[in-house]
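Holo model, FE2/S2 (inorganic) cluster. Inputs:
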Amino acid sequence: MTANATAPTTAGGHTSEFARTSRTDRWWVGPVLTVIGLAVCVTYMTWAAFQAQHYWWGSYLSPLYSPVLFGSPEGTPGAAPAEHVLFGPWPSWWPPFIPASPAFWILVFPGAFRFTCYYYRKAYYRSFTATPPGCAVCPVRQTSYRGETRWLLFQNWHRYAMYFAVIFIFILAYDALISFVRVDPVTGAKQFGIGVGSLVLTLNVVLLSGYTFGCHSFRHVIGGGRNRFSGASGKPSLFYRIWQKASWLNARHMLFAWTSLYWVTFCDFYIRMVSMGYIRDYNTWD
Ligand code: FES
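Output:
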C-alpha cells in the first residue's frame, strides 16, 4: 500500500472524502458484488412469493413455500396437494387484493435469520449504506461511531431466529426425502425414484445446513457456555465435537451464506420452470 498524498486527512491519517483510501487493492469489488448478488436474489424471491402458484411439481416443493401452512385456493396451478398442507384450506378472511401465497406465511423466518446474520450485516452495511464501504475506506457520512445501538438493537434477535432456522432445516430435509417418492396417478401406489429435482432439493438442504450450523449463534449455543469440554471419562464431550464441526463451518460462513442463498433461489426457479412446462425434469418415474 502507498499513502494517498492528495486526499485530505483527518486526525489519525485517514483520508476524509467518501470512498477515498490509501488502499491500492480493488476493495470495491466485494461491495459491488454484494449489491448485485443480494439484489438479484431478493428481487427474484419477492417476485416468486407473489406468484402464489407453480411452487409444486410431482413431489417437489419449492423451499420458498415450505412448509405449506394453508392450501392454495382450488384450481391454483402448480399448488401443493391437500395431503401436504398442514392446517387446511386457505383462510376465507384473507384480503382479496393480496395474492393467496403460502410463501407469505413462512418467509419471515428465513428472511429474519438472513437479515440479522453477522456476516450479512457486515456485507450490507458496507455495500448498501457505505458506512464504511470497506476497511480503511472513508464512509459516506462521517459521524461518530455508535455501533449497533438504538434501533439497530433489533439485530440481537438473530439468536432467536436461529432456532427457527434449525427447525426449517428439518422441514426442508423432509421435503428433500419425499422428493424421492412419487405417487402413481393410476394405482395410487408410492414409488421410490430419483429426479434432477430430488438432487436439487437435497443439495439445498446440504448448503442450508452448512450455513445454519456454522452460524455464530448456533456455535455459541453448542459450546459457548461451557467452562470445559472434556467429559468425565477424559474423552472430548459430544458438545465439543459438535462445536468443532460448527467452528469448521463457521470459518466458511461467507461461502455457505452465498452458495445456499443462490441455491435456494435456484430451487424455486427450477421447480417453477418444470411446473410451467418450460423445462423437463429428467427422472426415473416418467
Ligand atoms: Fe450468520 Fe448466524 S451469524 S447465520
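The two ends are 61 Å apart (CA to CA). The chain has a mean pLDDT of 90.
Archived with the compound record.
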